[in-house]
Amino acid sequence: MSGNSYGKLFTVTTFGESHGKALGCIVDGCPPGIELSEADLQLDLDRRKPGTSRHTTQRREADEVEILSGVFEGKTTGTPIGLLIKNTDQRSKDYSNIEETFRPAHADYVYTHKYGFRDYRGGGRSSARETAMRVAAGAIAKKFLATKGIGVKGYLSQLGPVKIDPAKFDWNEVHNNPFFSPDADIVNTMEQYMDDLRKEGNSVGAKISVVATGTPVGLGEPIFDRLDADLAHALMSINAVKGVEIGDGFECVAQKGTEHRDEMTPDGFLSNHAGGVLGGISTGQDIIAHIALKPTSSLRLPGRSINSRGEAIEVITTGRHDPCVGIRATPIAEAMMAIVLMDHLLRHRGQNADVSCDVPIIT
Amino acid sequence: MSGNSYGKLFTVTTFGESHGKALGCIVDGCPPGIELSEADLQLDLDRRKPGTSRHTTQRREADEVEILSGVFEGKTTGTPIGLLIKNTDQRSKDYSNIEETFRPAHADYVYTHKYGFRDYRGGGRSSARETAMRVAAGAIAKKFLATKGIGVKGYLSQLGPVKIDPAKFDWNEVHNNPFFSPDADIVNTMEQYMDDLRKEGNSVGAKISVVATGTPVGLGEPIFDRLDADLAHALMSINAVKGVEIGDGFECVAQKGTEHRDEMTPDGFLSNHAGGVLGGISTGQDIIAHIALKPTSSLRLPGRSINSRGEAIEVITTGRHDPCVGIRATPIAEAMMAIVLMDHLLRHRGQNADVSCDVPIIT
Amino acid sequence: MSGNSYGKLFTVTTFGESHGKALGCIVDGCPPGIELSEADLQLDLDRRKPGTSRHTTQRREADEVEILSGVFEGKTTGTPIGLLIKNTDQRSKDYSNIEETFRPAHADYVYTHKYGFRDYRGGGRSSARETAMRVAAGAIAKKFLATKGIGVKGYLSQLGPVKIDPAKFDWNEVHNNPFFSPDADIVNTMEQYMDDLRKEGNSVGAKISVVATGTPVGLGEPIFDRLDADLAHALMSINAVKGVEIGDGFECVAQKGTEHRDEMTPDGFLSNHAGGVLGGISTGQDIIAHIALKPTSSLRLPGRSINSRGEAIEVITTGRHDPCVGIRATPIAEAMMAIVLMDHLLRHRGQNADVSCDVPIIT
Amino acid sequence: MSGNSYGKLFTVTTFGESHGKALGCIVDGCPPGIELSEADLQLDLDRRKPGTSRHTTQRREADEVEILSGVFEGKTTGTPIGLLIKNTDQRSKDYSNIEETFRPAHADYVYTHKYGFRDYRGGGRSSARETAMRVAAGAIAKKFLATKGIGVKGYLSQLGPVKIDPAKFDWNEVHNNPFFSPDADIVNTMEQYMDDLRKEGNSVGAKISVVATGTPVGLGEPIFDRLDADLAHALMSINAVKGVEIGDGFECVAQKGTEHRDEMTPDGFLSNHAGGVLGGISTGQDIIAHIALKPTSSLRLPGRSINSRGEAIEVITTGRHDPCVGIRATPIAEAMMAIVLMDHLLRHRGQNADVSCDVPIIT
Lengths: 363, 363, 363, 363
Hints:
The structure is a homotetramer.
Chain A: E1 5-6, E2 11-15, E3 22-28, H1 38-48, E4 65-67, E5 71-72, E6 75-76, E7 81-86, H2 108-115, H3 131-147, E8 151-159, E9 162-163, H4 187-200, E10 206-213, H5 227-236, E11 241-246, H6 257-260, E12 264-265, E13 268-269, E14 277-278, E15 281-282, E16 287-293, E17 303-306, E18 312-315, H7 326-352
Helix pairs in contact in A: 1-3, 1-7, 3-7, 5-7
Pfam family, one (chains A, B, C, D): Chorismate_synt
GO molecular function (chains A, B, C, D): chorismate synthase activity
Organism (chains A, B, C, D): Neptuniibacter pectenicola
């Protein structure tokens, strides 16, 4: 179960570098009988694909996924599902000058020390490219969760300093702009900000939010595999993520107990500061998580670094890059949340299928 | 490896409820030959113990840990280490009225739905009491890490709205006050704030920071077992934690790429916005994490809730409780970081012991 | 999940050396609501206990197990169950001369090289004593399986050269003699053989069989966690086991396909050469496994060995020892089979709870 | 880590059905810097390939493996290695009549009940075809083990009733005949026996032995991940295996202690009844395991069975089949032993890299 595998019952194992022959993934533990086709996966992959707008990387990839096993006559068989995406557009020559240089804030330096050398083309295994596979696996999880009435949706909360206005929140807007912004009115401001950034040659971070609706009460395996702990793990494993919050997150620090607690009535909870998780177990309310993404490390603006001989150098990155990886993280965050929820759903029913309880469910 | 076990090579498995007979823990995978005694563990346990100051719970527990196996003639044998702490002071009668009530913002409601019923005395398994075992296990990890020149220390960054002043930061102060504050001057303000809170009958959250020094470059197993992902998992698994940051965390959202990136020179990194982790692997710089703890859920101030028949009730919690769990989380956060680092150290040398590399290490 | 933990959903983690303070165990993932008390566990522990007859070790141990957590008002809570057995009768002085000697066919030599040193009292962690904890954990699994109509029973097939007569097989006899023999008539022969062995100062091996009845079809997770693979793992992990068979085992080598295959009719299978497992999945027939136990390594008859300086020495073992560990392995084999079946039952329903199938079940 | 993943540090995860698009595998945790190419893997795959002799299945498959990731400039990078084999020769029409029938002694019946339906073409996931992937993964393990001076070799001990003569044992003969027999003189007898079997339309079982040489002392993680327990698990997971032995295996049952124990002298062990494993840890001697394979279940001779409506039917299997799967299991058994040894080698050095010991190693 080394580092490239996630999950206990529903497991995702991936392989592939940004400039290798292909990316792949094995999804194990998907229950049988779920309708599944390449089209189901392609939908989410296309949302992640670079080249969708002028604000994302101009790298054109087909990102066409193939299902190689685990599906028969249109339904999952319960056996492992092999997925494959061939890398078609890598432009190796863009990276030939970096074999001996370490780009600041990239994983070049650490990969070299950990493994003795590294595949220097693109980001190799550390590139965001590998997340394509997670999105495909997450699409399978979403398909299953949908059969249980559970949905997972994400959106952009903040692009650099530009925050969405909660009063203008509309889920239908999220897919109408290239930012996944649920606030239609702020899109122009975001586009302007991004164009300025592009001209400046700089980058900025982002904050993404993910919400799961229709979740049952009871998911999560205290104490170490609490639902929120597993969500934190899965979300923090996404490239460029530097922070994870559940519910009110860091706002809890200055909150008083009377403000924070979500009181209960026979008709439901009166608030959701907890973000749908208490004591590491889902309450049945919407599960809400936020992630902070750092600004992209590949810049045209020169940065000081060292080369493989330890000499001081200056690094400039040209070629095709994302000025804001945050824009693309939304489908990835959805995928990770879906994978975690699915794993927990199977675990919970595995252990507690015989449990019955008279207490009313108020969500 | 169900939900109460953490780690791949260095594993911690715990059991015990707040009002059961005892708490226990099995620590597996500790290398042999490490000097270990009860005294080593007791040191950290005492830091966590309630009753240390008037600001924490007035529940008096001996919290005396016994080593039952895995140590021979003062050294670890490499076989599993069994630890035991007997519960001595539970005051069951304080909880007899809550068998049928669900306290708001506690895990009562979710545990009942997940398992069909619950041990209603105290918080049962969801109580903070079980963290005593993690602190003991973490002390073992700290002992081993120390032999490798790695240290793990935590402190309070913020108590409710009261922030420490970075200019006054002094590690030596952390153990001189009951808040784990590294800023000696702010302690009076914190004490005053806490007394007001106590009179009001309310509670507040806190922000704790943990720092690991002397870490080697190369720890972390991308992509799912990235060091930061495992840290997020371990820290989020602590009761009351609602957010985790690595390095600059959520400040990254508004940072530009030129501000965020830690440039490198032959003499070292020029900054540490990354918090010591890049691409999921340690850089050799200090590893910095922050956690947000929600305000305590047990209040004297009445809160609306329901009972097990779904009827509306009002809940008041009397007895002994923590007005701010944040004060006690510092040793627990240290313990979790130590456990994660130790697991990763063993995993890294397991896979990469033969790796050699000419590139200079600049940290 | 280091080496002292077994299971995916239903997990058993143990600690303890033969001459340490105590043996312990954490059983995690037991569904809630199962009635459980110390008496349930004590029953199986007593079957394993030395001193039961003159043919087993004369070491008197109370082997009284305590339940420290995970049970409330007589039922499992779904939280981890901590078990403890204090070591009361170790007679350390019997072992003081072996600190520097390696007993042939014991684990002394390998433990010293693996860990650098060893707890030389008794067998330390390698002693059969630690199996007491597995029997206790297995009793919990048996309790749960019984609620599903599944039973697990073992018996002695062969003691050294003395085989039971299948024509005389009677389950009721198994508990009427100290050998777990289902053949009442052969007991005298076995007793005579054992007395001769004792006088000679030698030991002999044994073959134990375990049968699970009432199992459903569908348990097992191909390809690596096949039911038979997990059974082989669990049974081979018992001290002194050198071989495992499922169904006809090594008799299959010379069988023809027409002889081996278990044909099916609407009224059931016509035979059970497969031992209840096909393609790694249970068929619904009785699950049958056999294990081979090597003769005890502690003998009064001198054996050649070396000491810790590598010098040739002669080793004689005095004190209290088992002339045939096989006699005691029956409850341990039952326990391991029960643990494996329980883990698989939870895993199977976790993944496949929604599966329905019109095909009749013929078992 | 669901059922299709094996290993803790060195992990193998596979996917693929016999008649799906492709078979694949992800090998994770291979240390970096090991030379690896498709040719290394192809060598072992060709040994396993059907069509090699008239005694094995006449199904012609290219079985050409592709390395899709994890290797850069001819060396492993330490990142996961993706392998792919496209299925080219399935002859689907041979299986069209079995959609509704359950072949006796195949996994058809159990797969249908476990998953609700099954991919009825060939054996689907239960087919021996998936072992091709394990052989490829095992070849990677063998490459690494070779750098440590460890070799893994297998041979046929017994084909049906025909046993090899230990006095004629010659490792060089193993690759000179299609049976992997180390006894050149018995090959004619085996060929004759096989031809008679083929004419009869029947099948027979086999016994394969695997030996690891040059292994260090100290591999194995008691108590549950003992080296022999993991070997038993890995070997029993191979299709058609019904029994596993370590060392003398079931011969131990009738052995006396004085016969069985491997005495030690300063110049080495005097025997190897233990098969290289004591107390679950390798002794440094050759590690010896044997497996029993049942006769092939696909026969031209009619067998009684039921169809999916539970009606009595007769089943005849035509097409291309193995009359003795045992002949092909040798490379698979080698592969599994190599995978287990590699995983344990990484785990052992992960935990015990700092151990030193003055005691001489006598192997």
